[in-house]
């Protein structure tokens, strides 16, 4: 067989030529949608690559993006790795301190920034010593960014006048294509580098029928930000399959999302559960919207409540499919698509699991003593994972603890059944240890989220003199609800072991979220330790 390297340039060439008429459709502030074909994306990516070369980007230097989901970001996804440089997607929701740390750690040289995020970049730029060029999209005033020794230029001016074809270099498929830092839900952000090969193989897995089953007849609504684990691979999958990309820009609230779904009729979408929960509430209180174009909604990043999946399916004809992964796993590792022959409650039980590993990904369970435990649906251990798109190291970090004999230790605890369906019971760092036994915060949360008066529920472990730790349930109730903690406790009764039932409750207006929309338990634990949560003791 020919030794052809699997690179992003190959994905780009395929998308721009074979699927030349597929489109990137980007939502505009006035509600309209601007479109560019994949052929145009190909031409503009070539121009961007020439412009980056001309401003001095060589070898595997890092080009960062600080952008929302739009066509220019797709062009950066195509041009930067394909020219041999490394794409580093920065997360604008991080704190300025985290941004400075990450951009310097990655040694970013150029930043492509969305005009609306220019003030955020301006605030940290003086501390980004290696950045020599800033490219700004959206035609905004460049003056606030300007300083000595720095080139600041508008995106269209930057790429304008350059050739619309680029001789993409022959790259080693094992070289780095992109890098991403974990969102730091449980600790400091760590950098992961994706190779060309891992990106290519992961995109194929995402497209596969047992993955997200993407075809040229699809339109993918990528709500998951392009800075969150590569937008879960949706961008390259679209280029491979010839699916349109529907991009919501920075308009990630339920109302514009529902309008976008109704008008652009995407068939596939991806976002974390908190987004879908907002969308559901919006749909329920504003009847009349048709979102039934969505055939498959990929949802993951944290556990997906069963009632959310059922409500979407039964009321709106939309199938939410749970997937599990991490920044470290590119991210697609497992997906919950039960065999068609499994029906009824068993079907739903499998849908509520984190799914089966996709081909290419292997899982094993390891107990506290380092022994492998059986996949019997009962034994619990830490999930370890390996495969061609699973990271084998962290950038500039000899964290050997995270690896075990060629496997990545995920920090996720759970069980695997005989059919290889995974159920996560917790993150190791969120697990509640009470009287020497584990209480699954995830299981309590999912049950509470199913109560009709509960809008959001999260459960954290708090210190307890007698039991070492006990669960504290932090609840957001629906407007007008008068539900009490003891009613919620009664609701849990019989569904979990008696000693799991929380006696500590706290009602809040909203649960704090991390930069990628997960419940921020680290912050909640800190607030509790500082005495900032009004706890009701039953
Ligand atoms: P961070 O670790 O900072 O949150 P990631 O977005 O990479 O950054 O998070 C990966 C983690 O998210 C996984 O290790 C797991 O704990 C959690 N996760 C992802 N998908 C699911 C899911 N379907 N159900 C439960 N937890 C999930």
Automatic annotation (TrEMBL):
Annotated ranges, domain AMP-binding enzyme C-terminal: 443-518
Ligase in keyword set: yes
A Pfam family annotated for this UniProt entry: AMP-binding_C
Domain called AMP-dependent synthetase/ligase: residue spans: 31-394
Domain of life according to the entry: Bacteria
InterPro entries xref list: AMP-bd_C (IPR025110), AMP-bd_C_sf (IPR045851), AMP-binding_CS (IPR020845), AMP-dep_synth/lig_dom (IPR000873), ANL_N_sf (IPR042099), ATP-dep_AMP-bd_enzyme (IPR050237)
Coiled-coil boundaries: none
GO molecular function: ligase activity, forming carbon-sulfur bonds
Keyword tags: Ligase
Family: Belongs to the ATP-dependent AMP-binding enzyme family.
Protein name: Long-chain fatty acid--CoA ligase
Biological classification of the source: Bacteria, Bacillati, Actinomycetota, Actinomycetes, Propionibacteriales
């Amino acid at each position: 067989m020919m030794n052809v390297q699997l690179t992003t340039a190959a994905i780009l060439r395929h998308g721009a030529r074979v699927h030349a008429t597929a489109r990137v459709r980007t939502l505009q502030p006035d509600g309209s949608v601007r479109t560019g074909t994949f052929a145009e994306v190909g031409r503009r990516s070539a121009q961007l690559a020439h412009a980056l070369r001309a401003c001095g980007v060589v070898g595997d230097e890092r080009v960062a993006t600080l952008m929302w989901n739009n066509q220019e970001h797709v062009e950066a996804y195509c041009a930067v790795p394909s020219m041999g440089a490394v794409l580093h997607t920065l997360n604008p929701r991080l704190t300025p301190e985290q941004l400075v740390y990450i951009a310097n750690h990655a040694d970013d040289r150029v930043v492509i920034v969305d005009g609306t995020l220019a003030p955020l970049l301006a605030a940290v730029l003086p501390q980004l010593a290696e950045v020599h060029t800033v490219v700004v999209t959206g035609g905004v005033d460049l003056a606030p960014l300007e300083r000595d020794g720095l080139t600041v230029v508008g995106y269209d001016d930057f790429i304008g006048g350059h050739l619309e074809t680029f001789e993409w270099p022959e790259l080693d498929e094992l070289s780095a294509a992109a890098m991403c830092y974990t969102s730091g839900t449980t600790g400091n952000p760590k950098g992961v580098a994706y190779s060309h090969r891992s990106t290519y193989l992961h995109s194929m897995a995402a497209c596969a029928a047992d993955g997200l089953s993407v075809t040229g007849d699809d339109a993918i609504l990528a709500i998951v930000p392009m800075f969150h684990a590569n937008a879960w691979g949706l961008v390259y999958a679209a280029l491979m399959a010839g699916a349109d990309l529907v991009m919501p820009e920075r308009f990630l609230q339920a109302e514009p999302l529902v309008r976008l779904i109704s008008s652009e009729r995407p068939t596939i979408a991806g976002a974390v559960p908190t987004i879908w929960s907002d969308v559901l509430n919006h749909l329920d209180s504003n009847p009349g919207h048709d979102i039934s174009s969505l055939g498959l909604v990929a949802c993951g990043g944290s556990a997906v409540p069963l009632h959310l999946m059922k409500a979407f399916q039964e009321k709106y004809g939309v199938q939410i499919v749970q997937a599990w992964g991490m920044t470290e796993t590119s991210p697609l590792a497992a997906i919950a698509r039960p065999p068609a022959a499994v029906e009824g409650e068993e079907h739903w039980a499998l849908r509520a699991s984190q799914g089966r590993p996709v081909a290419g990904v292997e899982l094993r369970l390891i107990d506290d003593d380092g022994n492998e435990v059986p996949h019997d649906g009962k034994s619990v251990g830490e999930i370890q994972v390996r495969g061609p798109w699973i990271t084998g190291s962290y950038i500039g970090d000899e964290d050997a603890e995270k690896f075990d004999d060629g496997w990545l230790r995920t920090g996720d605890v759970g069980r695997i059944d005989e059919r290889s369906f995974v159920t996560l019971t917790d993150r190791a760092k969120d697990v509640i240890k009470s009287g020497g036994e584990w209480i699954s915060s995830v299981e309590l949360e999912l049950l509470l989220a199913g109560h009709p008066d509960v809008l959001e529920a999260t459960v954290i472990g708090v210190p307890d003199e007698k039991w070492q730790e006990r669960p504290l349930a932090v609840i957001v109730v629906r407007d007008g609800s008068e539900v009490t903690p003891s009613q919620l406790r009664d609701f849990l009764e019989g569904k979990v072991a008696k000693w799991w039932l929380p006696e500590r409750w706290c009602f809040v207006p909203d649960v704090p979220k991390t930069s990628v929309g997960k419940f921020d338990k680290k912050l909640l634990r800190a607030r509790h330790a500082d005495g900032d949560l009004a706890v009701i003791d039953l």
